[in-house]
Each structure stands twice: as structure tokens, then as C-alpha cells.
Amino acid sequence: MSHPTQRRQAAATRIADAESAAEEVREALEAAGIVLPSLRVDLASCAGEATRPLLDLGRCNLDLARKLASVLRGCVR
Description:
Helix content is 55%, strand content 8%.
């Protein structure tokens, strides 16, 4: 098992990477005119040594969900 300091540093790295990915998604969505107000890092998924961080895209209303679907359909080639 690794040293507690190493585990904390690894967790901090995973969280920073997840926050960076969340910001990338946020910026891309905003460029398409979409704001997901609940977009965030799922901190529970950053715990542990062998886990992969997840993003919680959160909740949105039906109009926003349809706009997101429309944008995604336009990206499919």
C-alpha cells in the first residue's frame, strides 16, 4: 500500500484532472449556447486508488435537454 501522502497527492491529481475536464465540457456546451447549471465533478468517484473520476452532468429542464439533443445530432456524422 502506498504512503498516505502519496494517496492524497494522487487523489488531488485525479480531482484536478476531473475539474479540468468539467471545464472543457462547460466551455464546449456554452459555445453551443447550452449551460448545465449542475455540471460538476462527482467527488465520490475520485476516492480510492483504482477509480476513475466521473463528471455529474446534473439536471436540466426539458427545453435544455432537447436543445442538447439537437446540438448532439448536428455533431453526428
